[in-house]
Each structure stands twice: as structure tokens, then as C-alpha cells.
Amino acid sequence: MEVNLMKALFKKIKKQWQLQAIALFGMTVLFLFSYLPLFEIIIAFKDYSINMGLEGIFTSNWVGLKWFKEFFGFYRFGEILKNTLILSILKLLFTFPAPILLALLLNEM
């Protein structure tokens, strides 16, 4: 009975190969942009240099919060934070209303 079930499953998959290809593409994109960056978070807690290459992520020494302390203690940190907040607020003010206005205009037609 299980053999017949497996044959039916493979027959269904073979029949819907386009759907399977689209699903595989979507899962690949999800993996690349959602799960792969999680491994790169390790770099923030290690003494890593870009010259070390990919193996440097796993072989470099752990430094804990050293890089965070250095960044937050940087003498221009306040200016960097202020500029980031200003740019983010301006981006929201100028880009958020445009699609809503466009949707309202299209809805009124």
C-alpha cells in the first residue's frame, strides 16, 4: 500500500513540476535572505577581518561586546545617531504617503 502511495505522490509531483520549481525558487530566496544572514551575526562578536575570508568567521577569536563598546564610545556617535534618525524620519515622511495617495487616486477612478 505504501508503494502505491509513493507512486501516486511522485506522479503528482511530476505532473506539477512547474509549481515545484516556483516553490523551490521561493524557498531558496527565503533561505538566502532570511536564514543566511543569521550566521553573519557572529561577525559582530568576533575579531574578524574581511581579509580572513569565509573561514575567518569560524577561526577568529571571540571578543564579546568589544566592537559595540567601541562604537557606542566613539566621539561622533551622537552625530551619527542624529543623522540616522533624521534621514529615517524624512524617508518616512516623503515615501510613505506616495503609495497611499496613488492607491486612493486609483480607487476613485
From TrEMBL:
<keyword id="KW-0472">Membrane</keyword>
<keyword id="KW-0812">Transmembrane</keyword>
<feature type="transmembrane region" description="Helical">
    <location>
        <begin position="85"/>
        <end position="106"/>
    </location>
</feature>
<dbReference type="GO" id="GO:0016020">
    <property type="term" value="C:membrane"/>
</dbReference>
<keyword id="KW-1133">Transmembrane helix</keyword>
<protein>
    <submittedName>
        <fullName>Uncharacterized protein</fullName>
    </submittedName>
</protein>
<dbReference type="InterPro" id="IPR035906">
    <property type="entry name" value="MetI-like_sf"/>
</dbReference>
<feature type="transmembrane region" description="Helical">
    <location>
        <begin position="21"/>
        <end position="45"/>
    </location>
</feature>
